[in-house]
Amino acid sequence: MVELIASLLIDLSEQKLYAYNPQHQVVRTMPVSSGRSSSPTPIGTSTVLSKFASVTMRGRDWGSLDALYQPGGHRMPARARWLYEHTPLGTPVTIRP
Question: What is the pTM assigned to this prediction?
Answer without folding.
Answer: 0.77
